[in-house]
Specification:
- The protein has 275 residues and is α/β, with parallel strands linked by helices.
- The protein has a single domain (15-273), classed as Alpha-Beta Barrel (TIM Barrel).
- Helix content is 40%, strand content 13%.
- It has an 8-stranded parallel beta sheet.
- Helix 3 (100-108) packs parallel to helix 4 and helix 8 (236-248) runs parallel beside helix 9 (259-273).
């Protein structure tokens, strides 16, 4: 792998963030990649299929999931990252965590992105870390924690509420020295079906904030509901439709399980957009 890493601050065409869940209970691939050797094989395949970013997480954030201890999360992700970051230098690595120590140890290993599903609500010092390491910081919006977030999510106006949330967190992150920010509206994280669809319809409104937009809708229950109860493994076409719409609305990073299919859709998008 000798190609140059893409820029994450000046993104002209969409990038694929491949998901590596080092967890026993993630909704799509829980338990498959706990073993570091299997995880490295999976990372190699995702890079071959077109991933420019690999997002490694050791705590499931699916609705209803239980939190894990800091040590358990470290035990899951650090052995993978110790080998993966050195082995695959052509891609960016991201640590999917809300814990300071997990993020710091990952950054010490050369990880370049902290993906915080709590959006600075659990551990604001993650912004300090990103400033210290000159790392990118994904600020994702969520309402509540994974265990309870889908119980009864409410907004006065979901798009405007999340726009205000991002504006506030951008100010806070910048005050802490973090400048390389990426915004994720958090599809499925404390949102009803109507909330999710409204966010996707108006996704381009977040472009006014002048940071790259990340969308993670891969195989989510929203897609299953639209398709009449389709199971997780049969939601790939629906995922591609959501992500292609999001590309048209200006999103530039896509967190996906099905890397090859996502990369193919981006090639089609690029071919059309360059005409």
């Amino acid at each position: 792998m000798t190609h140059k890493k893409p820029s994450l601050t000046d993104i002209h065409m969409p990038l694929v963030m491949g998901i590596l869940n080092a967890t026993p209970d993630s909704f799509s691939d829980g338990g498959r990649y706990l073993d570091p050797a299997r995880a490295l094989d999976r990372i190699h395949l995702m890079i071959r299929d077109g991933a420019q970013i690999i997002d490694v997480g050791g705590e499931s954030t699916r609705p209803g999931s239980e939190p894990v201890s800091e040590q358990e999360e470290l035990d899951r992700v650090i052995p993978i990252l110790e080998r993966a970051v050195k082995t695959f230098s052509s891609v960016h690595f991201s640590i999917d965590t809300t814990k300071y120590t997990v993020a710091k140890e990952a950054l010490d290993l050369g990880v370049q992105i902290v993906n915080d599903v709590s959006g600075m609500q659990k551990e604001p010092r993650l912004a300090d870390l990103c400033a210290e390491y000159d790392a990118h910081y994904v600020i994702m919006h969520s309402q509540g924690d994974p265990k309870t977030m889908q119980d009864d999510p409410r907004y006065s106006d979901v798009v405007n509420d999340i726009y205000r949330f991002f504006s506030e967190k951008i100010r806070e992150a910048r005050a802490r020295g973090a400048k390389k920010l990426i915004l994720d509206p958090g599809i499925g994280f404390g949102k009803t079906q109507e909330h999710n669809l409204r966010l996707l319809a108006d996704l381009d409104k977040f472009l006014d904030l002048n940071f790259p937009i990340l969308v993670g809708a891969s195989r989510k229950s929203m897609i299953g509901k639209i398709l009449g109860g389709r199971p997780v493994e049969e939601r790939v076409a629906g995922t591609l439709a959501v992500h292609y719409h999001s590309m048209m609305k200006g999103a530039r990073i896509f967190r996906v399980h099905d890397v090859r299919e996502a990369a193919d859709s981006i090639k089609i998008f690029q071919a059309i957009q360059t005409q």
